[in-house]
Amino acid sequence: MIDLHCHLLPGLDDGAVDLSDAVAMGVAGAASGVSRICATPHIRHDHDVRIHELGWRVAQVNHALRAAGCPLEVLPGGEVAETIVEHLSDEELRTVSLGGAGHWILLEPSPGPLSDDLDAAVRRLERRGFRSLIAHPERHLGHDMVQRLVTLVHDGALVQVTAATLAEHPASIGMMILARAGVVHVLGSDAHSPRHGRPVDLGVGLDVLRSVELMQPHLDWVAHTAPEAIVAGLDVQAPFTP
Questions:
Q1: By residue range, what is the domain housing residue 31?
Q2: What is the pLDDT of residues 131-140, one digit of tens each?
Q3: What is the CB-side half-sphere exposure of residue 117 using CA atoms within 13 A?
Q4: Each residue of 77-119: pLDDT tens digit?
Q5: Is residue 105 part of a domain?
């Protein structure tokens, strides 16, 4: 499986503290069945992530994982805040695209309920040749969340849910509503450190999705087909519609 959302690169944001932290996350991910991880540091104004450094930082972690005998591969990426999209060049967006393939952007909504600004960011990215993968909707529960996500999906976006939250109350209630509505497309761990918080593990989310009638025939698409297409920079359409 491919983890599309993980704060693995050390010393950049609120993720892995150091290289040993990053290796521990990779080892845990490999043990849970993850073969590739998109390293997605925060690309926003309150984190000093230098996009031109990300290539060698990914290479550094891959070298450390190989030295530790871990088969997992780290891919480039970034978690791009909706507020910074218009300030990034096309080259910078390609650098932080998922898998480095230049097409899919993991887009982080601003805190609070989803707003028209997120819609505008998705449309702005689309005009520039990028598609959006909306990150962790469980942080943005609101009365109109489902309808807003449905609109974004109709505009070409897909939705990434944090795997662990499908089994965690109270967020699990909202995420099950999304799954039954057909607006859960892929999972990510959104792991930050092996010392605390969520592990690099997608299986718990897939286990929960097996209980959703709409999702049952499409778990392989969620776990494999869609993530593989995303990191390859391919257009992909969900086999179910909201």
A1: 2-231
A2: 999 999 988 8
A3: 14
A4: 999 999 999 999 999 999 999 999 999 999 999 999 999 999 9
A5: yes
